[in-house]
């Protein structure tokens, strides 16, 4: 218990690791470069309006969900009622609703595509069965990819005969399963699925790992939640738990250098302060590592981590809007996934996610006003010069606002405040190089045993967050934080 831990970055992954290790009794210091907790699940204030920075939909809070188990370990229960209608999915040719109830959800699809009733029933039956099988492994939560005898032993002990049924799907894409069920040419159905996957897996059905796609398409049925105020509430609770258990939290501390000093690590912040610890946990984008580590240390990192550092990911354009809902026919729905075109790029404003506050959520805005966070995937090469940057901001923002106006006449007249968060803003406020967000696309070549481990390859140095197994999203980054906490403590901690 005399081991010290330094966590760099107070995103959900870093907060999970820090709060759990402090609860376990270790000496934990958490450094965060901004004045807010939560990273991409954080918030910011503009006058009387509060905006979630990025992530908005609460996940993993159902009984025995990943986040619920963390909060249970911290003795910080966070009860909420799940959404029965998770989101609306609007496409040029049709609109769907994502229902929590699986049978109701499938029945909706069958009604929309009656000539494909047998294929759709068989497809979803397989999806739900495979996802349920995978979830039995989320109880023990083995580390992937396993890299020590102990991790291999834990994985082996978690496996049961039923898991052999997953093996035929291991290297398959979702597209292959759509073909197997005769659904690959049903474009509207496939576009609806692609719109869901781009947010959760950062890719569409053509390349998505089938096992992760099955879990992603099913997980909303387990429970999705509106959190009053926003997901920053989860971050605040974990930050308070850290302090209550003797941990230290320092905001506005940007680590600029990380060095080995014998068997310990030493971090230096922008003010010249030094922090020594036996273990360091980096909850920062892995693309930042060349700025923190000397070349001699970078060369000792595990190969998948080194390769990941050199690999670009998606960036994003976000719109933050305050709307007078009294000027609309009806208040904005809480969550909407909108496909403006039938293109296959899954980016540049053709697909975007729109999250709105409840009109009575006074943590977000005065009564009758809804704050809206909109995000879309975009490629950094479309923003890498000044001229391209301004043109892309105008073009993509215009596409998004135009698509919303077509769907909700009078929307733009109801806007009280609008601000854009383009890639450079994300880089400035979150420290993410080029504004990279969301981690790597979860393709067969990047997922599961091909993912990046939380073990960096350097003794006492660990990584967590959306680039690390199992990937992006609140559930994913919390899982990476759990794996770090287990490795450092040597204990299972949550069950």
Automatic annotation (TrEMBL):
The alphabetized list of GO BP terms reads: carotenoid metabolic process
> What is a GO molecular function of this protein?
oxidoreductase activity
Any Pfam family matching the protein: Amino_oxidase
Domain Amine oxidase, residue spans:
12-488
Q: Which PANTHER family match?
A: PROLYCOPENE ISOMERASE, CHLOROPLASTIC, PTHR46313
Q: What is this protein called?
A: FAD-dependent oxidoreductase
Q: Which organism is it from?
A: Planococcus glaciei
């Amino acid at each position: 218990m005399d081991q010290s831990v330094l966590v760099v970055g107070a995103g959900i992954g870093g907060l999970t690791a820090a709060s759990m290790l402090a609860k376990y009794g270790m000496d934990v210091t958490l450094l965060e470069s901004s004045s807010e907790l939560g990273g991409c699940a954080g918030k910011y204030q503009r006058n009387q309006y509060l905006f979630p920075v990025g992530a908005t939909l609460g996940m993993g809070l159902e009984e025995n969900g990943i986040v619920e188990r963390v909060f249970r370990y911290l003795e910080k229960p966070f009860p909420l009622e799940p959404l029965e209608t998770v989101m609306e999915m609007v496409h040029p040719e049709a609109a769907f609703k994502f229902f929590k109830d699986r049978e109701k959800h499938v029945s909706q699809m069958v009604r929309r595509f009656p000539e494909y009733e047998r294929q759709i029933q068989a497809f979803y039956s397989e999806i739900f069965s495979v996802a349920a099988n995978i979830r039995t492994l989320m109880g023990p939560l083995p580390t992937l990819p396993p890299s020590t005898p102990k991790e291999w032993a834990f994985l082996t002990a978690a496996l049961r005969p039923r898991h052999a049924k997953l093996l035929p799907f291991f290297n398959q894409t979702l597209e292959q399963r759509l073909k197997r069920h005769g659904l690959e040419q049903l474009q509207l159905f496939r576009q609806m699925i692609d719109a869901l996957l781009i947010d959760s897996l950062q890719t569409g059905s053509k390349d998505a790992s089938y096992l992760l796609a099955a879990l992603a398409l099913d997980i909303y049925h387990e429970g999705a939640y509106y959190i009053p105020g926003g997901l920053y509430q989860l971050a605040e609770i974990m930050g308070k738990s850290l302090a209550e258990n003797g941990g230290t939290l320092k905001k506005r501390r940007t680590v600029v250098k990380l060095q080995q000093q014998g068997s310990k690590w030493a971090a230096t912040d922008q003010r010249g302060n030094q922090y020594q610890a036996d273990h360091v946990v980096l909850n920062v984008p892995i693309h930042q590592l060349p700025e923190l580590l000397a070349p001699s240390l970078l060369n000792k990192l595990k190969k998948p981590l080194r390769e990941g550092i050199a690999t670009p990911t998606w960036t994003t354009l976000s719109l933050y809007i305050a709307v007078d809902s009294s000027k609309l026919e009806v208040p904005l729905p809480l969550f909407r996934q909108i496909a403006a075109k039938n293109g296959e790029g899954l980016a540049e404003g053709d697909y975007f996610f729109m999250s709105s506050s409840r009109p009575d959520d006074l943590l977000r805005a005065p009564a009758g006003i809804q704050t809206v966070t909109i995000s879309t995937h975009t490629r950094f090469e479309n923003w890498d010069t000044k001229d391209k940057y301004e043109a892309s901001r105008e073009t993509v923002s215009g596409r998004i606002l135009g698509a919303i106006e077509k769907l909700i006449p009078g929307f733009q007249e109801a806007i009280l405040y609008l601000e854009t968060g383009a890639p450079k803003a994300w880089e400035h406020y979150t420290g993410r190089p080029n504004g990279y967000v969301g981690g790597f696309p979860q393709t067969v070549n990047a997922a599961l045993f091909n993912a990046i481990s939380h073990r960096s390859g350097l003794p006492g140095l660990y990584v967590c967050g959306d680039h690390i197994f199992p990937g992006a999203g609140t559930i994913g980054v919390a899982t990476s934080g759990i794996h770090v906490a287990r490795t450092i403590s040597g204990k299972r901690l949550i069950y």
